[in-house]
Write a structure and sequence with these properties.
The chain has about 325 residues and is of the alpha/beta class. The protein is built from twelve helices and ten strands. The longest helix has 18 residues.
């Protein structure tokens, strides 16, 4: 049964985009997943977002995605809303996963623009309209143009705000001029949620009118991002500036170790592995950090106080 009724409108606070703990190409690290879910819930988050970019969703089999949704929803058991990414190149697969998510007890689904074939905005609105007709849960839009090639333009967002089945948007563009437009358009609807993706922009986004953030670092330090959100929302300037400085320090230290675009996800998984939370196996075509990079992350994470125990630098 769906728990959509438990979803705050607008959704506020920090909703971590969970990594997908893996032990192999098509095998979940089940124990690690369970520890991760409990860790972020204990950190005071406002929800969980699974099968997003940080969760490596496009690289996972549909079978594994379904297993992940069922396991997470069963474990969370209504303690926080679960949002499920259903972005896919196949309309039918998006709908199928959304229906499974509803049956499992998810509160909402999330979609970016369909990737590979870039759509025009008129085509995108028609696609979203058809999706809304078939979805059993409310929909959060996910703006990620660096990976999908298409963004939700102003006219499409204006249309989306008028759709009762769309509850808001997560913007991961990093374009603050665009974000100003997102916030402005969202003001037309009191229950419309505007969530920031890049955690380094969280404080600024909340000051501009965002309702929270979907921050990758909240996987390994949920309390930090929850406290930063609160400080910004309460206009506690001194505390906000100090916490924001720490968020930027972590981003520079952890996310810039790798040489490729996958470095952020690798960094998050590596820290979680060093913390003893879950395995850092990556879905192909990526691989976990090699030993030299892992040692760098271990040293930096320890210096930042992210490791509760001495780091494990092998495996």
């Amino acid at each position: 049964m769906s728990s959509a009724g438990s979803l705050p409108q607008p959704l506020r606070g920090i909703v971590p985009p969970l990594v997908t703990p893996l032990k192999g190409r098509d095998e979940l690290d089940v124990a690690g997943l369970e520890r991760l879910v409990e860790r972020v819930l204990a950190g005071g988050v406002s929800g969980l977002f699974i099968l997003g970019t940080t969760g490596e969703a496009p690289s996972l089999s549909h079978r594994l995605r379904a297993e992940l949704v069922q396991r997470v929803c069963r474990q969370v058991a209504g303690r926080a809303p679960v949002l499920v990414g259903v972005t896919d190149t196949s309309f039918i697969e998006s709908v199928n996963l959304a229906r499974l998510a509803a049956e499992a007890g998810a509160a909402a689904v999330v979609t970016a623009t369909p990737y590979y074939f870039p759509s025009g905005q008129e085509e995108l609105r028609e696609y979203l309209g058809h999706l809304l007709e078939a979805l059993p849960l409310p929909l959060l839009l996910y703006n990620m143009p660096s990976l999908t090639k298409v963004r939700f333009e102003r006219e499409t967002l204006r249309w989306a705000v008028d759709q009762p089945g769309i509850l808001g948007i997560k913007d991961s563009s990093g374009d603050m001029l665009y974000f100003h437009d997102v916030v402005e358009l969202g003001r037309a609807r009191p229950d419309w949620s505007v969530m920031m993706g890049p955690e380094q922009l969280l404080a600024e986004a909340v000051l501009l009118g965002a309702h929270g953030g979907i921050c990758g670092g909240a996987n390994f330090h949920p309390r930090l991002y929850v406290e930063l959100y609160r400080a910004a929302a309460e206009r506690d300037w001194e505390r906000m500036l100090e916490l924001n400085r720490r968020v930027h320090e972590i981003a520079r230290a952890i996310y810039e170790v790798g040489r490729h675009a996958s470095a952020v996800i690798k960094g998050i998984k590596c820290v979680l592995s060093l913390q003893g939370v879950c395995d850092d196996y990556m879905a192909e075509p990526f691989h976990r950090f090699r030993e030299a990079e892992r040692r760098v992350v271990a040293e930096r994470a320890a210096a930042l106080g992210l490791l509760e125990e001495p780091p494990r630098v092998t495996g």
